[in-house]
Each structure stands twice: as structure tokens, then as C-alpha cells.
Amino acid sequence: MPKQSFEQRYPKIARWVYEHQGIIEIGYDPNSPSASFIRAIDLGGDHWEGATEYESLDDALSDLESGIQQCLEEIYGE
Hints:
The longest helix has 20 residues, at about 55-75. It contains 3 helices and 3 strands, in the order ααβββα. By secondary structure, the chain is an alpha+beta fold. A 3-stranded antiparallel sheet has the order 1-2-3, covered by helices on one side.
């Protein structure tokens, strides 16, 4: 099976970072008021926060992909 690039596997995340100039945070920040494990942020601040725990990093990235899709639809109407 051919190996997929990150951009192919997670096109919405790639668009968030490259086109929207958003930021992705993965991991816990004890100094943050957020308890989420994964977050999408843009110049306006937090835009999407995931769950506090995931079974795998792939599950977290899949959830982020879905969350960013919703954000992009809200922002750009797509």
C-alpha cells in the first residue's frame, strides 16, 4: 500500500496550517485553562478543542480533522 503524506491523510489540518495560518497544539499544558489534549488556534484565539483523552494520537488527529472541517465551514462557508 502506498504511503500517504500527512497532507493527503489530513487535508483540513494542512489547510488550517498552510492557508489559514492556524496553529495546532498537541499535548497537555498544565498552565492552560483548557484540559483538551489537542487544539486548533488562529489569530482570534482558540477555535476548536478536542477531548481530554484519546486512545491514540491517530484518533486525536482524526478528531482534529473533523473539528477543523467544521471551523473552516464556519469561517469560509464551505
